[in-house]
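Notes from the 1:1 (GR / supervisor)

We went over the backlog. Supervisor wanted to see one worked example end to end before approving the batch request, so GR pasted a single chain during the call. The sequence is below; no edits were made to it. Supervisor asked that the structure be written out right there so they could see what the output format looks like.
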Amino acid sequence: MSMDKIVEDVKKIPIEKGDSIFVHTALSSVGYSGGDPAAIIDALIGKVGTEGRIFMPSFVSNIYAIDYLADDPIFDVQKTPSRMGLITERFRLNYDVARSVHPTHSVLVWGKDKEEYTKEHSESPWPFDQKSPFY
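Structure output shown during the call:
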């Protein structure tokens, strides 16, 4: 599928200005054939506008968290790449996002009050509790 077609389809999604959306992407599942993934991110930003928010998972591993943590890795909120695909990594590197500080299940947030949604995730005993952006 071409990037133009993907962006065209994103623009058809019923998202309104001011909405908060959680985006999990997998370009491989739509037959991605090249192009700049920033076009998808830009289309989503255009949909939610400056009053909205975009959340994306930015997990640091594609294996079970317990197996990942067994190697005692170092998580650097600024430098550790997202292993959730090309779009999430592009989002992390090239957009004004906040990233939650969680060693296995970090989340990227763009938009209004982004810091509010990420600031307490490091205090979460579980990745998806009340202090998590997933909540």
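Supervisor's comment: The helical segments are 3-12, 38-48, 65-70, 86-94, 114-118.
Batch request approved.
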